Amino acid sequence: MTQQLFHNTAICSPVDRGLPLAGIAQGELAHFNNGALLVEDGLIAAVGDEKQVRAAAKGKGAGELEEIDCGGRCMVPGFVDPHTHMCFAALREEEFALRLAGTPYLEILRQGGGILSSVRAVAAASEEELFANTLGHVCTALSLGTTSLEIKSGYGLDTENELKMLRVIGRVATESPVDIVATFLGAHAVPEKYKTDPDAFVSLLIDEMLPQVKKQNIARFCDVFCETGVFSIEQSRRMLQAAQAHGLGVKIHADEVNDLGGARLAAELRACSADHLLAASAENIKAMARAGVIATLLPATAYSLRKNYARARLMIENDVPVALATDCNPGSSFTESMQFVIGLAVLNMHMTPAEALTGATLNAAYAINMAAKAGSLDQGKQADFLLLAGATPAILAYHAGVSSVEKVYKKGQEIRRTP
Ligand code: IZC
Ligand code: ZN
Questions:
Q1: Whose atoms come closest to the Cα of 326: which ligand?
Q2: Are residues 231 and 143 in the same domain?
Q3: Residue 196, Cα to own-chain centre: how many angstroms?
Q4: CA distance 42 to 52
Q5: How far is Cα of residue 289 from the mean position of the Cα atoms in its chain?
Q6: Which residues line ligand 1 (CB under 6 A)?
């Protein structure tokens, strides 16, 4: 058995106690200033003060011990990005220009652009092209420190193209070192031909697409874009209840632009997460806390849409566990960088660097049901970790516009070059 001992490092990580971290606990990290990490076959065998970890390594007896000097750098868990739309075929730079000139995001969608232009691009792309594009974004994310992530479908909007997207996501999961969770987001927009009868489209999603997704076992979660002019609360409830009946976990794009009560629906359904929440009311945030729903916040979207940020402090004060994600997509938030998201969370949502790190790692892993193997440097989990160009995780918010992630390790292996 090969053992690796990573030493000469300051280790900072949230501690997994079996639940996402809420309230004060979100900001409490374990620190080992003279830390070490012992890795066996890609898993964490011991973590803590160097002396204790060395003793644990000896206690394990036979086998080679490879020592790796981390050069005094800070070690944190690999980032987990629990909300992305990275599977797309074309950029939307004209839409960016329209938004800069003042046309609102939802107005562009209403006029048949936005998500619907991505739908046309996916329909026109071959599976091979879509695969190459998606892999490119996943590799960029990996080089910036994201070792696990979620990808949604939702640019297909018919059975053939939704399944094509989910197959591509599955192939990227197989062919890249990143752990990838797929989410079925057939309810992302109403296609042109159902414009006058969106309920009929919801029926198509439930009666035709969902059973196929289930039969082929190609998604773990189902999500809905619940928003003015997209899917109503009633339509979202119908869709998500059907998904639950098929045994899928559920998520909801909630209160991104308008407060429709998506956060309350997430609480009612005991969804795994409610995402965005820029416009969520205090009352509905409290309902989420009572139901144990994770708030996945996407501050790069508020940044790109020039909106007010979600009320992270209110959520933390009310014991809602907060996760952070990029929302990487060609429309409202085009970034693969979790470091950028952490910077925005700290400087614009007033999270502490420790709270933001927990949001970008352990709570994010819970938000995609991956905490058993990722999200913290606890014994038994995968050795997915980063070495930072600084002494503390605060460097991630402090040094803007560059990557402070000097080295990325996935299951104990250094990622030198992305495939
Ligand atoms: O392509 O615009 N908000 N869906 C809901 C998105 C943003 C992605 C997009
Ligand atoms: Zn989204």
A1: 2
A2: yes
A3: 33
A4: 20
A5: 20
A6: 85, 114-115, 118, 225, 253, 329-332
